[in-house]
Amino acid sequence: MKIIRRTDGLLILGVLAALIIGCEYFPESSFTLASESRLPRWNTPPPGLTRGDVSLTMSYFSMPWGGSARFRLQDKNKEIIEKKNGRVRCGGAFQLKNPPQGFPPGYPAYEAITVDGITEIIEHRKMEPIFL
User: What is the pTM of this model?
Assistant: First the structure.
């Protein structure tokens, strides 16, 4: 009887560990930086490439200990140039008290993300896979 209880406990512990670890591999959502937006200060294209030669993808991850964001800088051939990991600073997106007219409810929404000690504000203007 003790062996069965112990096995059940280990099984539950294993399932919980797998769920927590799985949070690191499956993004909550992913977005591409709008072509008219500048790159965040922590991403710099290598010499010979300009902003127009690269794209930036951001993925949000939800962890029990807080949110994180991963950034992938790619060239036009989809080759990854740089990967950066950041921390979502606030508990959730924040919004303006009096948003401009023409935005859907809940937008624009902003996230403060810190990468390599540099904090940038990420803007989401509507529910779409684009960020500014």
Answer: 0.77
